[in-house]
Amino acid sequence: MGAWRLPCGWRLLFSMCFIGLLAEVVHGAGADALHPRLFPAEARTLRRIAAKIGVAHWNFSVNPCDSESMKCDCSFYNNTTCHVTGIFLKEMNFTSQLPPDFADLPCLLQLDLSRSLFHGAVPDKWAQMRLQGLRISDLRGSGSAFPDLSAMQSMKTLVLRNCSISGSIPSYFGDMKNLKHLDLSFNKLTGKIPDSFAKMGSVDYIYLTGNSLTGNIPEWLLRRNNIADISFNNFTMGSSGPTQCLQGGINLVESYSPEMISLNNINPCLKKNFPCAASNGQYRSSLHINCGDKEAIVNGVKYETDTVPKGASVLYVNPGSNWAFSSTGNFMDNNINDDSYIATSTSKLTIPSSQLYARARLSPLSLTYYGLCMHNGSYTVKLHFAEIVFTNDSTYCSLGKRKFNVFIQGKMVLEDFDIEQSAAGSGKPIMKTFTTYVTNHTLEIHFYWAGRGTTGIPYRGFYGPLISAISVVPNFQIPLAAKLPQTGSRISSKALLIGTPILAICIAFVVGLYWIKQRRKSSMHQDLGALDLQIGSFTLRQIKAATRNFDPANKIGEGGFGSVYKGLLSDGTIIAVKQLSSKSKQGNREFVNEIGMISALQHPNLVRLYGCCTEGNQLLLVYEYMEHNCLARALFVEQYRLRLDWPTRHKICLGIARGIAYLHEESAIRIVHRDIKASNILLDKDLDAKISDFGLAKLNEDGHTHISTKVAGTMLVSYMRGELSWSW
Ligand SMILES: *[C@@H]1O[C@H](CO)[C@@H](O)[C@H](O)[C@H]1NC(C)=O
Ligand SMILES: *[C@@H]1O[C@H](CO)[C@@H](O)[C@H](O)[C@H]1NC(C)=O
Ligand SMILES: *[C@@H]1O[C@H](CO)[C@@H](O)[C@H](O)[C@H]1NC(C)=O
Ligand SMILES: *[C@@H]1O[C@H](CO)[C@@H](O)[C@H](O)[C@H]1NC(C)=O
Ligand SMILES: *[C@@H]1O[C@H](CO)[C@@H](O)[C@H](O)[C@H]1NC(C)=O
Ligand SMILES: *[C@@H]1O[C@H](CO)[C@@H](O)[C@H](O)[C@H]1NC(C)=O
Ligand SMILES: *[C@@H]1O[C@H](CO)[C@@H](O)[C@H](O)[C@H]1NC(C)=O
Ligand SMILES: *[C@@H]1O[C@H](CO)[C@@H](O)[C@H](O)[C@H]1NC(C)=O
Ligand SMILES: *[C@@H]1O[C@H](CO)[C@@H](O)[C@H](O)[C@H]1NC(C)=O
């Protein structure tokens, strides 16, 4: 009740007293508390609107308030008279302009035209309204400046998406105390984000995606706790602009202007078109993603896992850095706090390759998949869809309709695509095939919800693009030299042929280095420089950029020989950098050991060493990053404790055993680890165990026993710390 008083003001009182009395004379008959009538002036306005835009379903011979698309407050005159408070037009093909007449409904608080097609611009007359919610999207037409909404001080939800609005964002939004949701995405907005926006700390969602906003990215925005998506803009870096994409609710993908493309210290994710950097000439030529689901192998093809549950404002780069997705938008009108960005099939699918379709990624607004560092050339893109939310039966769920648009490399390939219609039924797969060209090593597949279809079936907030799987294959011969090295456990005979001499050289190096060290300790850094040739060599600058100059916030652990930092290389690869304290004499020897051994050893259950850095007096090892840190943390540290079920524990045990077995028996150089403990067992994203820290390992010459005589007595005790045996 309190809500409508504010906007209605004296005008309402006036109309109630005079026109209202008149109305009761004219329409009075039949209006009672059980059958209230619409206030006559409003009924006339609605008739006018209905005629202009072509709404047929408002029945004026009864109370149009009974329509689903209208909300009224019928408490006036002892519950006999209604005022319109909300209008929610469903999917309609209006070819008309937005009618100014909505401004003649004095108590209108909510106006949702986001799912209907309109043309033109927001009428000037609307400036006199006192709306709390306004939603318009995908307005066709030549565009307009920002409409005047300054009087709508109690605005809570404002959506003006893809309305061709140009010019700058007015600053008064910063003063709207009730604002919770501001979506100005996909317009032509220019200029800076107004300073007053710094006051919008309690606004849950800010979407400025897909504009041409300029200036520096404001500091307060980067520190926000709530969602802010400013991806796809023309910002400049300035003196303190971000050089990395952020974790959390701030999406910065492609937010910098094209001029920033040549700056090397900026992560490519921030640059236009997400270019491929530092790929060392190694490009990929295919891509297979099982969107919204775990890894699956279908017809011999491995579809990569994509199970990140977030999506309101997020950039996710997969651990192999060969693909990424950016997701924008939250599901509106649902009361669920946790929007679900992954749909799960309600019934068991009995279709071929059902692993691809059982779960799918959903997006309420915009979703962009990137194929990163791909060869230039022609590709066949296959998009796999199946409607798994709506059903084809006699239930309410069958009334749901999903429609969305798909763009590949910026070109629209599907408009108002309806999976169910296209596949002739729900739960049935449909594959759409397109040919596209990658001209600058990045492939972009964009899904966009243009407001079509239903939004409330089976529950509120079920709509938007749904994608089950993506596969991209080249239409050309893959250049041989650029094939990626196998990362699997099976070493091909070819690899052995090449690998054995390298291994021999490695051993020679390590042994040689050890020998040199004994004699000339000072020349160590030069020798390590030579070793770099065998494995990846990183510059100190690269590593400083990746770890933000060893930012304490990036520290993920403290090993026996120094700290471990998380870092992001400019090509998007996430790494772990172990900084060996150069003071420790022992550390230096360990350094040599680690490089020599780990570079020679590759196994799914051993942590992979990407390379090292020996600049200055720094001794740095660059490892693959392990999402779940170490087993000790997963078991014993309260705030990081993982719930490991028995199958997972079993898997971890097997992994450790396989790793050790490889070290002991399968590898060319036999190694005794000597420091197996929970903090040396790292867990990757799938909770597979990998053994790390070969710092104490020593070469174990062929023919000798695995257990060195010196520690034989305590070996059983010291080889494996207690926690591995008793804690689980
Ligand atoms: C309007 O409602 C009346 C009474 O229920 C009904 O007879 C009439 O057919 C309806 N008109 C339209 C256009 O739906
Ligand atoms: C309001 O309506 C009730 C019955 O619905 C009636 O008893 C009462 O007198 C009415 N009051 C006024 C002020 O009209
Ligand atoms: C109007 O209706 C509501 C509920 O429908 C009731 O609580 C209220 O007392 C009614 N007011 C009058 C004046 O009859
Ligand atoms: C709108 O137009 C499209 C094609 O122009 C048509 O498929 C659709 O059924 C129309 N929708 C309505 C509600 O008229
Ligand atoms: C915005 O709407 C226009 C039609 O007016 C459409 O062509 C364009 O694709 C839409 N933008 C997006 C991001 O879908
Ligand atoms: C923003 O960047 C686009 C290219 O991504 C460019 O076409 C456009 O002119 C830029 N706009 C402004 C205002 O700088
Ligand atoms: C939905 O199921 C009914 C039978 O239950 C069938 O007649 C109809 O063709 C199906 N529709 C689609 C689109 O599969
Ligand atoms: C291919 O890649 C290079 C960069 O490696 C780029 O300069 C070139 O424009 C790309 N496009 C084509 C069509 O070759
Ligand atoms: C391709 O990307 C490189 C940098 O990665 C950039 O310098 C070049 O301008 C891009 N070319 C096109 C055609 O976008």
From TrEMBL:
<dbReference type="GO" id="GO:0005886">
    <property type="term" value="C:plasma membrane"/>
</dbReference>
<keyword id="KW-0808">Transferase</keyword>
<keyword id="KW-0732">Signal</keyword>
<keyword id="KW-0325">Glycoprotein</keyword>
<dbReference type="InterPro" id="IPR011009">
    <property type="entry name" value="Kinase-like_dom_sf"/>
</dbReference>
<dbReference type="InterPro" id="IPR001245">
    <property type="entry name" value="Ser-Thr/Tyr_kinase_cat_dom"/>
</dbReference>
<feature type="signal peptide">
    <location>
        <begin position="1"/>
        <end position="28"/>
    </location>
</feature>
<dbReference type="InterPro" id="IPR000719">
    <property type="entry name" value="Prot_kinase_dom"/>
</dbReference>
<dbReference type="InterPro" id="IPR021720">
    <property type="entry name" value="Malectin_dom"/>
</dbReference>
<keyword id="KW-0547">Nucleotide-binding</keyword>
<feature type="domain" description="Protein kinase">
    <location>
        <begin position="550"/>
        <end position="728"/>
    </location>
</feature>
<dbReference type="InterPro" id="IPR001611">
    <property type="entry name" value="Leu-rich_rpt"/>
</dbReference>
<keyword id="KW-0675">Receptor</keyword>
<keyword id="KW-0472">Membrane</keyword>
<keyword id="KW-0812">Transmembrane</keyword>
<dbReference type="GO" id="GO:0005524">
    <property type="term" value="F:ATP binding"/>
</dbReference>
<keyword id="KW-0677">Repeat</keyword>
<dbReference type="InterPro" id="IPR008271">
    <property type="entry name" value="Ser/Thr_kinase_AS"/>
</dbReference>
<dbReference type="InterPro" id="IPR032675">
    <property type="entry name" value="LRR_dom_sf"/>
</dbReference>
<keyword id="KW-0723">Serine/threonine-protein kinase</keyword>
<keyword id="KW-0597">Phosphoprotein</keyword>
<keyword id="KW-0418">Kinase</keyword>
<protein>
    <recommendedName>
        <fullName>non-specific serine/threonine protein kinase</fullName>
        <ecNumber>2.7.11.1</ecNumber>
    </recommendedName>
</protein>
<keyword id="KW-0067">ATP-binding</keyword>
<dbReference type="Pfam" id="PF13855">
    <property type="entry name" value="LRR_8"/>
</dbReference>
<feature type="transmembrane region" description="Helical">
    <location>
        <begin position="495"/>
        <end position="516"/>
    </location>
</feature>
<dbReference type="Pfam" id="PF11721">
    <property type="entry name" value="Malectin"/>
</dbReference>
<dbReference type="GO" id="GO:0004674">
    <property type="term" value="F:protein serine/threonine kinase activity"/>
</dbReference>
<dbReference type="InterPro" id="IPR017441">
    <property type="entry name" value="Protein_kinase_ATP_BS"/>
</dbReference>
<feature type="binding site">
    <location>
        <position position="578"/>
    </location>
    <ligand>
        <name>ATP</name>
    </ligand>
</feature>
<dbReference type="Pfam" id="PF07714">
    <property type="entry name" value="PK_Tyr_Ser-Thr"/>
</dbReference>
<dbReference type="InterPro" id="IPR051824">
    <property type="entry name" value="LRR_Rcpt-Like_S/T_Kinase"/>
</dbReference>
<keyword id="KW-0433">Leucine-rich repeat</keyword>
<keyword id="KW-1133">Transmembrane helix</keyword>
